[in-house]
Structure prediction request, 90 residues.
Amino acid sequence: MAYAAVIQVRIDPDSDREHRHSILNEFVAPEVRALPGFQRGMWMNDGSGTGTCIVVFDTEEHAVSAIVSLTPGGGPQVLSSSIQEVEVEV
Prediction:
């Protein structure tokens, strides 16, 4: 069974979208793809200051160990983080 690391962060709703995407694509995504057990990931923005990251791993242990890499110091303010079992995908 797969497990997802689910993280919500505070982002500036007025920040430049292209800049955010370049940071995610050039730095964050390659590092996340290299994590043990990585399967897939998504980064979402509610448009009002909250970003949500969902990264799926092959095991709970890999998801738990990835939280540190997904919430580095100096990054956006972390509002919440959790590990959740993936029960159904469509």
Q: What stands out?
A: Residues 3-85 form a domain with the Alpha-Beta Plaits fold (CATH 3.30.70.100). The chain has a mean pLDDT of 95. Strands lie at 3-10, 38-45, 50-57, 78-85. The CA atoms of residues 25 and 46 lie 19 Å apart.
